Please model this.
Amino acid sequence: MSSSVLDAIFIGGGVMSAHLGVMLKRLAPRLALEVYEAGPELARESSDGWNNAGTGHAGLCELNYTPPPAVAGAPVDVSKAVEIFARFEQSRQFWRYAVAHGLAPRPAEWIRPVPHLSLVRGAAQIDFLRARQAALRAHPFFRPMEFSAEREVLRRWMPLVVEGRGEAEPIAATRIEAGTDVNFGELSRRLLAWLGAQEGCRVFAGHRVTQLRRADAGWELVVRHEASGETRSVRARFVFVGAGGGTIPLLQTAGLPVARGLGAFPIAGQWLVCENPAVVARHEGKVDGPPPPDSGALGGPHLDVRQLEGKRVLLFGPFATWTTKFLHRTGRFTDLPGSLRADNLGTLIRTGVHNRVLVRFLVREALQSMATRLRALRVFYPEARDADWRLVEAGIRVQALKQADAGRLYFGTEVVTASDGTLAALLGASPGASVSANIAAQVIQRCFPERLRDPDGYARMKEMLPTFDLELGEPAAAEDYARQSAEIDEVLQLGTARSAG
Ligand SMILES: Cc1cc2nc3c(=O)[nH]c(=O)nc-3n(C[C@H](O)[C@H](O)[C@H](O)COP(=O)(O)OP(=O)(O)OC[C@H]3O[C@@H](n4cnc5c(N)ncnc54)[C@H](O)[C@@H]3O)c2cc1C
Model:
């Protein structure tokens, strides 16, 4: 057993631990901390570039953040989109700081500007999209958003989507240039490399935390070196469980009240990928469609241009599929059965009964053939050729099912903490990586409030995240937003028109 007690341990080497770890170390430079990642490499689960869509979620194109009003013609509620935008803006603030201080690589290696578009078909959806754009444009965040139902404009915006489509089919889109494509995996690996090189900090890959239990000064963890099978125990005053799909099983071992009755349900993803340069060169954007009517709040399919491993590719999806694994690379098929307990069986059954429509949707998605997937693609890209597309695995979302939700499903991201602030964990997936700086700030506010009460600590936090204690979404903050945002674009080399209009 190691004799010293660390200040903090991070379980999981993904985007969440990377952001919180770096932010904490900059806030309190003398902290001694360690990061343990089960996989042989860092950030190769959900945070890896291929395993998520890389969308900088800012409410620009995702139609699930602005559901159609229950009564036709009623105003569209855009509050969720405003909230997501403000939270993503905090990530951009932190990234500006990280680039400016040499903690993150050159922006071109992990973030680039990509227009975000929403595509709809049919008269009713077009009316909704127009109303949505009007409601969004009333807020300074979304002023530059354009709407069009004219074929020539749409062809210019997204030729693959328009070509080969019958003139009789009404379509419309909104477009905003100031969207982003982010390689969260690349960014996380580089942030963790910086962290591991700091005094008092160590980052281990290939080390799985197998147990988490209370100890005098905080927590004791059992860590297994995956290659040799050797185990050791380490102690820390604070633990962050940023283990993605591995979080719920670890919380179950910790005996926290929040884990009582907590169930987990994995939904794996798949993409159709196109690498034909002639096709890829003709699409510049992330084009989101409406969520299928029976998919709950899972989000709609999208046709995205991505830059992965130095190559430009198109990704379409995600398609949901069935798995019992909680982690894509290091998970086991026994993960789901192994998570079942007497206290969470009821939660799982109630959620299944309450969400029969969603369950049917997931079964249908999982059973579909390649031909059905290509038909879904042709709704976006009518002239898509079968030979240009192959199917690849994406990440796994592990949905937390809570007793208190009485069967209702919430697809958000939630920070849970022990009542004494010695442990924090992250549940849920979406909007996930895009709001990682905001999540890190929430953990710091809840678990390290004394650091922020100290004037020096407060100043450091303000330097990293100027809006951590402000409501950026309030109209009064708009002027400040425009100024800050232009500066961020410059540092992150995102030369687009954010504050036009
Ligand atoms: C199909 C799909 C599309 C998505 N698209 C987007 C998008 O466009 N934009 C966006 O912002 N977000 C998106 N997300 C969500 C985003 O990917 C996640 O929210 C984010 O990557 C979660 O980061 P994390 O660090 O919490 O988890 P992860 O990246 O999964 O990292 C957790 C790490 O913990 C490790 N681990 C697990 N158990 C243990 C253990 N016991 N001991 C040690 N290590 C352990 C794992 O190996 C893993 O590396 C998407 C997700 C999916 C699945």
User: Anything to note?
Assistant: The two ends are 62 Å apart (CA to CA).
